[in-house]
Structure formats: structure tokens, C-alpha cells
Specification:
The chain is of the alpha/beta class and 273 residues long. It folds into two domains: 154 residues, Formiminotransferase, N-terminal subdomain (Formiminotransferase-cyclodeaminase, Chain B, domain 1, 2-Layer Sandwich), CATH 3.30.990.10; 104 residues, Alpha-Beta Plaits. The protein contains nine helices and nine strands. It has a four-stranded antiparallel beta sheet. Strands 3-5-4 form a three-stranded parallel beta sheet, covered by helices on one side. A hairpin with a 4-residue loop joins strand 1 and strand 2. Helix 1 packs antiparallel against helix 2 and helix 2 runs parallel beside helix 4.
């Protein structure tokens, strides 16, 4: 959501999510809140959060380090490989079955367009999220809903994808040019990265698209070789199989832990997927 400063509004989103809420990550500099939802009722929970966002937020009032297409902005549906770590690792070698996520994506987009009057752009196998951000309403029309943005809610990017890890590295310096250069050199098929100025402190903000080959450890070490790091920041949660590939003595500096996995939060809430 495009809100990271109002505690009352963020609490309203969390309440709307209900039992499916696994994690809340708020960032006042980006002015966004990332809710991680899971469980059998995740589609209903997602709709409830969307309704709250459309009711409470106005994109015309948004200001943050990252531009946003809408007050809800991005809704990804992600298949989760459950079971033992060994089973998950074996499953990871096989192509992910996106069919359930694609179906959930299309159901949500249909709902948001018809019930909330918010246009939706689809991403996934057809096209990437960056493609939508570059061309929405200019070269690409919404897949569902009105042809123009909602006057206060904007639009929603609704996706179906495999697991990724959102990960930020705060530099121990204020030279934004260094963050830009690191982000530029870091970008590849497995990684999307931006250099950002957050209140006078430089940050390398990453989406680790293929965390099994380039995960938090690789991202941290890549940046540390080029600039001093003040701290790492995990946005949301990681799959257990990613955590288990990382030596436990590195978890603190990487902002990781056993309680920061998707599986741990699902088990904590007694939610079966």
C-alpha cells in the first residue's frame, strides 16, 4: 500500500487482513506498507485490505522515494511450496506451477475492477512488473476496469509469480551516486536494484527475483565489496529453504531469522495452504 506514515491507517489495513496476516513491513521513506498474507482465505483477506485502502487513501496525497501507480499498487499471488525443507528443495528444481496463482490473480483483478472501479494491469508470464510501470496508460491499457486511473486510488498491478525476496541495504554514507552505481552494476536477470536517497542516507533497494541463485547473502556481499553497509533490511518474509542455505551465524547481519520465514508464520497462525 502507498502509505507508510499513518499508524492508524496501517492498523486498519492489518485489521482488515485478519487471520491471514503474516507480516507487516512499514517504511516511512518509501511511504509504503507491505502486507504479507497467506492461508486458505487469502483471497478474501486481500479483497478486504483492498477495500480499506481505496476507502482510506488518496494517491494525490502520496509522496515517497518510490513512485506508485496506485494506493494498493501491487498485489502478487505466489504459490508456496510446503512440506519439509528437503521436499521444498527438490520441488524448487522443477518449474513452478503458476496455474492457481494465475487464477487467483484474474479473480482479484475482476473483483477490483467491477466492485472498486479500479483499473488493473496483469503481470506474470505475459510481461513483467517493470514493463507495466514504464508503459501503463501510455502504451498499455488496463486488462480489467476503466481505461483511466481511479481519481483517488489510481490503478493496481496484479501479478502471479514465483517467490522473490525484497531486500534493502542501507549504506554507511550519504553519497547517492555510489548507491546508483552499485545498483546499476548489480542488475541482472536474477536481481532488480535501485539506488535511493532516503532522508540523506543512500540505500540500495533490491528485488531478488531468483533468491535460490542470488539471495540475501549474495546481495549483501556484493554491496559490501563496494561500500560500507550500515544495516540490512528484509522486507516481508523469506521461504525457509532460502534461510536454511545461509549459515546461521550470518542471520543477524543479514536481518534474517527462523521467525522471519513464510512457513514459520503460517505455522504460528495454524494456517494450512
Amino acid at each position: 500500500m502507498s502509505e507508510g506514515r499513518s499508524a492508524s491507517k496501517i492498523e486498519a489495513f492489518a485489521l482488515a487482513a485478519g487471520r491471514c496476516l503474516l507480516d507487516v513491513h512499514t517504511d516511512p521513506w518509501h511511504n509504503r506498507t507491505v502486507l504479507t498474507l497467506g492461508g486458505p482465505d487469502v483471497e478474501l483477506s486481500t479483497r478486504a485490505v483492498a477495500e480499506a485502502a481505496v476507502t482510506l487513501l488518496d494517491l494525490n496525497e502520496h509522496a515517497g522515494a518510490r513512485p506508485a501507480l496506485g494506493v494498493i499498487d501491487v498485489v502478487p499471488f505466489v504459490p508456496i511450496r510446503t512440506g519439509s525443507a528437503a521436499l521444498a528443495r527438490n520441488a524448487a528444481k522443477m518449474p513452478v506451477d503458476l496455474a492457481p496463482a494465475l487464477a487467483a490473480r484474474d479473480r482479484f483483478a475482476t473483483y477490483a475492477a467491477s466492485e472498486l472501479s479500479v483499473p488493473c494491469f496483469l503481470y506474470g508470464p505475459e510481461r513483467s512488473l517493470p514493463e507495466i510501470r514504464r508503459s501503463a496508460f501510455v502504451e498499455v491499457a488496463p486488462d480489467f476496469g476503466p481505461e483511466a486511473p481511479h481519481p483517488t486510488a489510481g490503478a493496481i498491478c496484479v501479478g502471479a509469480r514465483d517467490v522473490l525476496v525484497a531486500y534493502n541495504l542501507w549504506l554507511a554514507l550519504d553519497d547517492l551516486s555510489v548507491a546508483h552505481e552499485i545498483a546499476r552494476s548489480m542488475r541482472r536477470r536474477e536481481v532488480r536494484a535501485l539506488g535511493l536517497d532516503l532522508g540523506g542516507r543512500a540505500q540500495v533497494s533490491c528485488n531478488l527475483i531468483e533468491p535460490r541463485s542470488f539471495g540475501p547473502t549474495e546481495a549483501f556481499d556484493f554491496v559490501a565489496q563496494r561500500a560500507p553497509i550500515a544495516r540490512a533490511e528484509l522486507v516481508g518474509l523469506v521461504p525457509a529453504m532460502i534461510l536454511e542455505e545461509i549459515p546461521a551465524d550470518r542471520w543477524p547481519e543479514l536481518d534474517l531469522g527462523e521467525d522471519r520465514t513464510i512457513e514459520a508464520r503460517l505455522a504460528e497462525r495454524d494456517l494450512a495452504v
